[in-house]
Amino acid sequence: ADDVARALKDPVYDTEPWNSISTEGFRNRIEGWGIHRVRNVGNHNRVHQWVGGPMAGAASPEDPVFWLHHSFIDLLWDRWRKAHPKAAYLPGRKPASPGRDRDYVFGLDDPMPPWNVTPRKLLDHSKIYRYA
Predict the structure, then answer these.
(1) Using CA atoms in the order 73, 45, 89, 72, what is the torsion angle rounded to 10 degrees?
(2) Residue 120 vs residues 19, 27, 70, 107, 124: alpha-carbon distances, Å
(3) Nearest to 4, CA basis, from 59, 76, 69
(4) Upstream peptide bond of 95 is cis (omega within 30 degrees of 0)
(5) Residue 107 maps to a domain
(6) What's the rounded Cα separation, in Å, for the pair 58 and 82?
(7) C-alpha to C-alpha distance for 106 and 48, rounded to whole angstroms
(8) pLDDT tens string 40-99
(9) How many structural domains compose the chain?
(10) Within-domain flag for 62
(11) Which terminus of the chain is more exposed, N or C, with fewer CB under 10 A?
């Protein structure tokens, strides 16, 4: 509960270098990268580790728990957006400098594989569903 509260209070979505070593920002506080150095797990990742089985790897969508868990992570995103309505999705643009993580960092208008949808199109889910 304390980790979730800290993440929801963070007014910044993400920080450079936009990957797992960032130590600030809502995204990394929820993911657990960089924030929790012990086994690199946090609010999101800890559940995958704890459930184990298919949830611990790339087959996680095969486990029904995955969908419950990610619904909760989405709820946290919704609460964070409401708490920080002027906060921007970061990074606004794909990093210009080449690096090993560059292919995994998407700016606001960069299409993401495999569906080629941009982060901008995914920011507001309220036209499709809402939380009570």
Answers:
(1) 0
(2) 19, 16, 19, 9, 8
(3) 76
(4) no
(5) yes
(6) 31
(7) 24
(8) 446 888 888 888 898 988 899 999 999 999 999 999 999 999 999 999 999 888 887 777
(9) 1
(10) yes
(11) C
